[in-house]
Amino acid sequence: MSAITNFHAYYLKIKTNRWYWLFSIFCRVTLAAGFIAAGMVKILGERFASGLSIIHPMGTYLEALHHTGYYYTWIGYAQVIAAVLLLIPRTVTLGAILYFPIIVNICILSFAVRFEGSLMTAPLMVLANIFLLVWNYDKLQYVLPFKRTHNYIVFEKPKKYSLKFPILFFAGVVATIVLVIAFFIKGYDIMPRNSLSDCKQQFTETSNKDAGYEFCKCIHEQGGSLDSCLEVYNDAIR
Fold first, then answer.
1. How far apart are the C-alpha atoms of 189 and 220, rounded to whole Å?
2. What is the rounded CA–CA span in Å between residue 26 and residue 32?
């Protein structure tokens, strides 16, 4: 059998398992909650993460975004619309498609500026979004660039769901969460953090304390970009 045929067989099998179904609901609800909260802040005209200094790398971006007027508001509406679509069973696929580019953008932004506010949650949300896209493959397949010879599958809700617990799948979920948390804690040697004091704390008991403090001042007092402040740090420890 071809890879796509094997996938179809596996897909139809997991779609009849209640544990996978419950996990899909969990993903829908948590993703929706995250975007409704973030989207409403923008719709109401408030700056997202308002406690973050405007000279912080992420704070600078959010401050500029806040001043884009109706574009900022539109992002909020897009987030809330995607969230609501996820909560409605008939529009889950559309919601997952709309949600995906938004959360991927947030994830990349978080890594680019090392923003700890979403450095852990954003990649997990991306993975949850991908799960929902795969979970709704029976609908998504019609918008994928398949050849005309592709055999489309049709899933019909079973009269009775299987209650067999997918140990390997959920072990993988837990392992993924642990790996993301580990990367959040140990992934970067240097983080701008959200305040000057928090930034300095990561260097307090290190041999590069003075260089680290200069990095923190560069970020939180001088408003330097992450790259330029990292350059200052690297020059100081050479």
1. 18
2. 10
Interval 161-166 mean pLDDT = 94
**What is the rounded CA–CA span in Å between residue 163 and residue 95?**
28
36, pLDDT greater than 80 = yes
pLDDT attached to residue 3? 79
pTM: 0.93
**What is residue 208's DSSP assignment?**
T
In one letter, which amino acid is 139?
K
Report CA Rg, the chain: 22
Which residue from 72, 71, 48 is spatially nearest to 58, judged by alpha carbons?
48
Residues pairing with 17 in the sheet: 162
Measured distance CA(85)–CA(104) in Å, rounded: 18
Write the DSSP symbol of residue 91: G
Find the mean pLDDT for residues 226-238. Answer: 93
CB 214, CB 233: distance < 8 Å = yes
Beta carbons within 10 angstroms of residue 126's beta carbon: 18
Cα 122 from Cα 118, distance rounded (Å): 5
